[in-house]
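S2.1 Query sequence (Peptide methionine sulfoxide reductase MsrA)
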Amino acid sequence: MQMKTILSTAVFALLLGTSCAQTPSVKIPRATSTKPAPGEKVATFSEGCFWHAEIVFQSLEGVRDAVSGYSGGTDTDPTYEKVETGETGHAETVNVYYDPARISYETLVKAFFASQDPTEVNRQGNDVGTQYRSVAFYRNDQEKATILAEIKRITPQYKAPIATQVVPFEHFYPAEAYHQEYIYHHPENPYVEGVSIPDYLRFRQTFPGPYKAL
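Output structure tokens follow.
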């Protein structure tokens, strides 16, 4: 049985007796159905469940789309089932397509760290395994420097060391179609109700944006 299925069952039981079941109606940010802007760039991040990462980045002004997928491993034909074993080396990842004239790479990096606990090793919350590790993939030396500068800035805010891996980008493999825009299409899923949406709301409360009007 896959990790999120197990967690969904556990979360559903909790929802029956906790305030999580009262999560207010939330407008879920989706990909913008526009053509890529001239000069559009791509940033690649892993921060636990890609369902969560997808709506975090798609909520930001200047981001056209965040595509769920797999990066950081050796399997050249990854599937969700294979990645969830932890044996492919891949992490659940998002490719973030953004307009650098409207949002900077630095802002994306800040959002990346603000939307997770970067001190957790091979996990985020109850999602456990190397496939849920925190990774910032860089495409050039400037991106690497931006990531390292943010790590240096936030390190004093935590008691534990920052566990985020900073590695060069190599390959991105899009996840199966049913994973794309998953939270939008399945807001009633117990894991989404009890984990994904509360995590997203906490991010919105603590990160200044800029956010799209939803």
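The chain is about 35% helix and 20% strand. The CA atoms of residues 26 and 197 lie 8 Å apart.
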